[in-house]
Amino acid sequence: RDTGNCTKVNGAPGGTNHFPDSLNSCLRVLLFLVPFCSSMAKKRRRQDDFQKVKLKVGQKKIRPENSTQSNFRTKAIRLPEQLRCLNQQQLQPTNNRKLSVQDLLSQIHHYNASVRQGALLGLRDLLSLHPTMIDAHLSSIVSEVAAMFTDKDPTVRGATVSLLQLVAPKIPMKQMSPFFPLISAHLSSAMTHIVEAIQEDSLLVFDVLLDEYPILLASRSNMLLKNFVELISHHHLSKGAKGAVKSSAWTLSVNPNRTLTSQQWSLNVLIRLKKLLQALSDNALNNSEEGEALFSRKDLADLCHDFKWLEHASGQQHIEIYEGGECWIPLFSLRSLVSVGGSLEEGLSSAEKLKGFIESIIPLLIECWVEASSAQPSSGNILKPESQQLMQQVLNIIYLLWRLSEQQDKIHKMEVWLRTKYLKDFNHFFMNHFPYFVCDPATYLKTPQGKRQTGFPSNGLDHLLLNLTLCDIMVSLANSSTFQSDSDWLDRIRKFVTEILMDGWKLNWKQLNRLLGVTWRLMVVQRNRVSTERLIRAVYMLYQQKNLAFPVRSLLLNFFSRIYLRDEDFNLLGSNSRNKALFHWLSSLPVQLVQLSSRNPELSTQLIDTIHAAAARSNKELLSSLQATACQIYDPHDGILVLLPAESQKRLVQLLYFLPCMPKNLLACLNRCCIMGRLSSSTAAAIVGILHTRSTFSGWTSSVESSIMSDVDYFSFLFSTLAGFSSEELSWLQDSRGRPHICHTHVSPVHLFLTDHNQFVHHCTVTEAVCQSLSTIPARSQCLDIIHNAIHKHLADFLVIPDSMAASILRATTRLVDQSCLPSDNLKKFLASCSCSLLFYVVTLENENAKLA
Q1: C-alpha span between 603 and 557 (Å, rounded)
Q2: Whole-prediction pTM
Q3: Given the DSSP bridges, would you call strands 751-753 and 800-802 parallel, antiparallel or unpaired?
């Protein structure tokens, strides 16, 4: 204690001692820490209750009384079915990234566009390597891929189109039909999407579906046709005259945000619309043909029966009729799922719907035409290639709409409505600069002064189809009653058509088909003999061109056949008229048939049918030409009869019925055709039957002219056909040395030459036809004498004859011999020799077969 510093204040009694300052500070600190020390002691005592017991090494922990038992036991369970499923999943095909179809389908809706694209491309590669996976996952593939039509990423849409191009050809229409409503709904969403790029890609999807499923797409046309209209136009509301009534209309739209120009976009849309209308037209045509076929079959089933006839000799006994077959019952077919519901029927299935669509699309097409024609050079009929393509599609769509109206309109009400509503506009916009030409791009260049040079019309045929389509549309609006009012533009069309026909153009099938259609319509509209003859002469000049392709030649042939066969219905040539070009064409048909030979069997068949139709009408020019070329047609070596297929051979054989006469050289050719084996046995028998019908022994009540075929020539044909071999061939057979196919016998002087089985059967069939003709001759004794004299003159000196000849001679004589008509001794001797030789051969053959058995 430091007391030295302690003082007493003023020495006053009872004064206070003052401590130093440092001691006061320590006292204050101690007084401040006393409460804290007491609180720490309390905390230390409180933690003693939760003191962790530290265990020594090796000492077991004491389990608390409130502890929970958490121990458990496990046991493995084997599931074979689950293991099999796992193995099957491991065996499923995968792509190069080891992803299966399910894995790829699950990635199609990924948020990342690159993942979606990779999934679609991987699915395409996987399905191209394993096409069988398409059927196994068809529902998932179709639903997932269809949802990608409206994807925002262009690369994903491109991959979708690529996958669809791979999958669609491998899925049949029957399998796709249940899913097509879903596909068409997504396609419609893409076509009407607010994003222009999605609309453009939807046309690519439409192309794939139309190529593979035109019928299914046509069944959804009610929705798609509206989409096509909306792609190139927008709805415009215009007030009426008084402002009270509003009428709706579609007007052509221009979108500057597109990557394509207005004309290019309209062209792309119109091309697809034309394809859809083409599918609708073809589908309607097929349905009408099926309906007509069903109606005809039903009528036949109700009105008549199928009969089987038993062949008998005429006049011997009653002919029994056996009813065969049953009425034709149409097959039951399931109703298509696509056509269920009234809203899903075809968009142009009725005349009212067709009228509504025509009223909405024709003004837009006229606007497209005006837009394309306004960008042309100073001469309005010279077109740029781009404008020509757009104008061609405009006319194609109108042409198809006209065809649909003709298919649906049976009483020509639609034709009157179309003429009243659109003839004036068509004449003003379309025919104003007719005919049109295509500008050659090489001659339509910029000059150094910045001016354009007007090119000359191109020498190609790009403009021809455009003009012909326009002619076809305009002529379809005309008829014979309106010819006077339409004579102005009809004369321009007639002049254009005549120039094309006479200028020697090398036309393809499509152009010629359209040209001949316009020509036929002009002939029907103006039934004037002079103008009709001028058109026919122009077509005949085109027909006379050399080296025409088969489709072109076939079209021309059909055109002339139509004129000749339907002249009575339309009276195109006038009463009692003879068109020189038409009859020159008819007389040249047999010559063309000979010259064509077998180079084109289809065209030869078409020529034969035309010749048959004209011969049935007894056309003198054709019959005289057919008579002059008959020996060339029926030549047994290189004639067209032995070169064409069996059906054409039958038609040629039927022409024998119309020939004015049957000369000896023609009968010789027909005999060789029957026995050489180049014709079927039924065709050869038909020749024998037709010649018998043309002979004087046919039994007709009316007399047959003897100038057609003499009796001597007819019997010569029958005996030569009965023999089956010519005299030169029989002479060659007499040298039997070294010939293994000759059956020698000591019981008969006649030896047999063994023919092959097919030749023997053929000869026997023809023999039956000859015997049928011989048995109908009334004077049997004279007929038997003729056969005897022929055998004695031509066969008696031969020691080797074919076995088929011996059998045929025996068959014919047995049909002629009866109690009133007996053969002579010489004939009996020859017949006995043939019988012994045949019997010896048959017995020898049976013995050899028995030994082999």
Answers
A1: 9
A2: 0.72
A3: parallel
Q: What is the pLDDT of residue 236?
A: 66
- Residue 174: other Cβ atoms inside 10 A: 9
pLDDT confidence band for 294 (50 / 70 / 90):
very low
Q: Of 141-150, 234-243, 574-583, 738-747, which range is least confident? A: 234-243
483 by DSSP, 3-state: which? coil
Question: Please, are residues 807 and 761 in contact by the beta-carbon 8 Å criterion?
Answer: no
Mean of pLDDT over the chain: 80
The answer to whether the peptide bond before residue 590 is cis (omega within 30 degrees of 0) is: no
Burial profile 48-82: b = 16 or more Cβ within 10 angstroms, e = fewer: eeeeeeeeeeeeeeeeeeeeeeeeeeeeeeeeeee
Quick one: how far is CA 754 from the chain centroid? 51
- pLDDT tens per residue, range 566-586: 765 555 555 445 678 888 999
Alpha-helical runs (H) found in 661-710: 664-675, 681-694
- For 218, left (φ over 0), alpha (ψ -120 to 50), or beta? alpha
Handedness of CA 473, 476, 477, 478 (dihedral sign): positive
Q: Find out whether 400 and 274 touch, Cβ atoms under 8 Å.
A: yes
Domains of the chain: 83-259+275-289 (1.25.10), 711-852 (no CATH)
Structure tokens at 124: 């395409």
Q: What does the alpha-carbon distance between residue 747 and residue 724 come to, in Å, rounded to a whole number? A: 25
Instruction: Tabulate helix, strand, coil % of the chain (nearest 5).
Output: 65, 5, 30
DSSP lists the bridge partners of residue 234 as 251
Euclidean distance between CA atoms 226 and 494, whole angstroms: 37
- Which residues lie closer than 8 Å to 783 by C-beta, 6 or more apart? 774, 777, 816
- Among left, alpha and beta (phi > 0; psi -120 to 50; other), residue 809 is alpha
Per the listing, tokens 């295509």 go with 438
The whole-angstrom separation of Cα 543 and Cα 516 is 12
**CB 80, CB 74: distance < 8 Å:** no
Cβ neighbours around 334 below 10 Å, total: 6
